[in-house]
Amino acid sequence: MTNRFIASRMELPLSMVATIAARVRREGTAARRRRAGRPRFLSAREGRHLQLLVYRHRTWSLDQLTAEVNRFMTHKICSLTVRRYLHRAFLLNYVAVSKPYLRSHHVSQRLRWARDKVSWQLSRWEDVAFSDESTFTVRPERGEARVWRRSHERYLPACLRPSFKSGRLSLSVWAAFSARGRTPLVLVNGRLKKFQYMDIIHEHLLPFIEDKHCGTGKVLLLEDNCGPHRVLPVDKYMALHGVQRLNWTPQSPDMNAIQNLWAMLEARLRDRPQPPTTLDGLFDALCEEWARLPDSYLSALWRSMPDRVTALVNARGHSTKY
């Protein structure tokens, strides 16, 4: 067949067909010729082994990975070579995201909760009050963990840094907010106890609900399952005043929008020209920054609840980006 006939039948440029045909007559094959340059140190199989090693040991350093690879290599390679192969596979070294540790029953409970709430309309979340406590320190602990992952694997369970509850307390505060406003920031003296929590409810939460929501029968309280929140005297006090609480699953701070407020408050605190150096100064600074938080940011938080629940369903109960 002529080159023109082949080009017309295959709808290819005549010059391309002529070039390939000349290569076949000259070399006996149309395969690509071997390029000049230094051959790669790792074969395709060894490259796959390196990727598998990273998947099994996400938190290993580059030197640890290099040492392990050199155990089965006939010729030694350096850490820069390992880094190039990992970058070619789109595996980069990031700071690990810190998320609460999730056991299998936590995952199933979170997924069940999300499936129950995924059908809620935005208007239903408008009558939810988000409350919680948070701890702030004068000088926060520094430190980060790094992990090998691809850009879209940020919240993969293997790429997370589990965080556990700590008994260390510096300065604890309580607050609540809803679509209609926020409570003042309340100082928690020492470790929160049931009677102190009942005083907070009586002096701050109930007046907030009466003022902003016209009664306790028109609002749902979202809080976690920590001990002082769920003891029997508090349950009876809540029932006596008609406060209805939203059911909650453990290890789910990403579903409580007030956690983002704490993060914003922490960031504003550290951005102050003169960070506080005493606990009294820390509380005063927190109250100032709490009052300065824009209402638009609070509105965006409670409006994000349908997206949060949908993200939890899509993650099958595992950690989300919130």
Summarize the structure.
47% of the residues lie in helices and 13% in strands. It is α/β, with parallel strands linked by helices and 322 residues long. The chain folds into 3 domains: 1-29, no CATH class; 44-89; 104-143 and 165-314, Nucleotidyltransferase, domain 5 (2-Layer Sandwich).
Describe the structure.
The longest helix is centred in the middle third of the chain and has 20 residues, at 194-213. The chain has three domains: 1-29, no CATH class; 44-89; 104-143 and 165-314, Ribonuclease H-like superfamily/Ribonuclease H (Nucleotidyltransferase, domain 5, 2-Layer Sandwich). 47% of the residues lie in helices and 13% in strands. The protein has helices spanning 3-10, 14-27, 44-56, 62-69, 79-88, 104-117, 122-125, 194-213, 227-230, 232-240, 258-270, 279-292, 295-303, 305-314, and strands spanning 92-95, 97-100, 128-136, 146-149, 160-163, 171-178, 181-182, 186-188, 220-222, 244-245. The protein is α/β, with parallel strands linked by helices and 322 residues long. It is elongated, with a radius of gyration of 29 Å. Strands 3, 6, 7, 8, 9 and 10 form a six-stranded mixed β-sheet that branches. Strands 1-4 form a two-stranded antiparallel sheet. The mean pLDDT is 88. The chain is built from 14 helices and ten strands.
